[in-house]
Write a structure and sequence with these properties.
By secondary structure, this protein is α/β, with parallel strands linked by helices. It folds into two domains: 388 residues, Alkaline Phosphatase, subunit A (3-Layer(aba) Sandwich), CATH 3.40.720.10; 51 residues, no CATH class. It is 26% helix and 10% strand. The strands form four sheets. Strands 9-8-10-1-11-12-6-13 form an eight-stranded mixed β-sheet, with helices on both faces. α2 packs antiparallel against α3, α8 packs parallel to α9 and α12 packs parallel to α13.
Length: 495
Amino acid sequence: MTATAQGAAIPPAPGNSLSSIQHIVVLMLENRSFDHMLGLLYAGSGNVSPTGQAFEGLTGRETNPDGSGHSVSVFPIGPSTRNVDHMPGADPGEGFAATNLQLFGSSMPAPGAAPTNLGFVTNFAATLAWESKKPGWAPRAGTTAGDIMGIYTPAMLPVLSGLARGFAVCDHWYSSVPTETLPNRAFACAGTSQGHMDDATKTYTSPSIFGLLTSHGIGWKIHGYDSSPLTRLNFPDTTHAPESNFGLFKDFQADAAAGSLAAFTFLEPSWGAAGNSQHPDYSLALGEKLIHDVYQALRSGPGWDQTLFVITYDEHGGCFDHVAPPATATPPDNAAGEFGFDFKRFGVRVPAVLVSPLIAAGTVFRVPAGATPLDHTSILKTVETRWGLPALTARDAAAQDIGPALTLQVARTDDPLAGVVLPVPATVDPAEAPISHLEQVHAELVARLPVPDAAGGTVHAMPLLRTSAQAKAYIDDRIAAWKASRNAPPKPSIT
């Protein structure tokens, strides 16, 4: 099979082994674009994979103008790059307006406008200027607006790149909506954000994939890394689910080793600035280790031959990508969303890597031309297809599943990460790290939990939390108190 780098990716050979999969495991990391992480994956072979499939990567000639109109080129991030483990050196703009500025050069583009993807440098410059006005805030030393054009080489991300080359990379997988974290995570779990387009809304009333699985007698688990998972508090059918559906990363490792993985497992990273979520500008190396640890836990367990592991990122986080997101999405709901958004436009392209011994090495997986492209609701569609479940919304009903990437009938026994050396993270004191945005979100959600006080009341004011350590302690303590109150026997009524 052959193809040019400019042509359509050749679909995998006939065959679909999705019915052989007993465990689907999803690790959703934070805020990185496809080009930023994987754009140079096959640059050395002219953006053609070893199987002859075209790969929508970078040529090295892509540019963005700066505020003076000068072209800023993409550049490789290598061992000697300043702030190498923390590029682009600060948190870029990621909300709806910022994403529009990056794609269209306007915070509210005209209907039908075509994205040019030429606003990443100027928007990062504006973000740096705006962030600099915050008391005590500063980017990493030497950070400039042009750093948003930095692209990690495969050697700098040996785990993510090794799995992408060793199994399948999806080069046309888009975030579900052109905005920040929580709406995209809502689409990944429920196929809708119920019209919401920013992180101001932290909970949703819609059914999720977890409740759907429960109603059909199919097992699932959500694992936080070292604290109770944030996702638990986003939907009614997870918040009220039994404790047996939740755990920490060590519990996931134990399940994998024992061969007792649920049908569907959703993994969260640690959310702190010293954690492994890979949110800009947190450590990429710590995230590499997390991906490695998930893979090793699965590969070493007895269920490996029947497992599909999906690695993706909730949104692009303001990082550069050169591919214009399509406007062919199916709206999940009837009403228009916040800012008048109609949910017909996908978000920016994000990394997505599919790992299974039933996937051929060197696969570049995308749907055929003209089909609905892959996005986070493809996870839902894959779970629904595998276990014969109905769709949650019109969006996941229209989504494409990833079963066709599973072309092998006999499980592979090789290990594409054999001998890999993990990158070394920069030193960070987690106790002194400032509270992160998602730690703040998590703390606000646990503050709402109905934990009775000594007088039996549940009115509670969240304390001021300044550091990651304070946030973790508060979240852990309040979750423990909530669990205890749920398990407490009812008080006898007074007659």
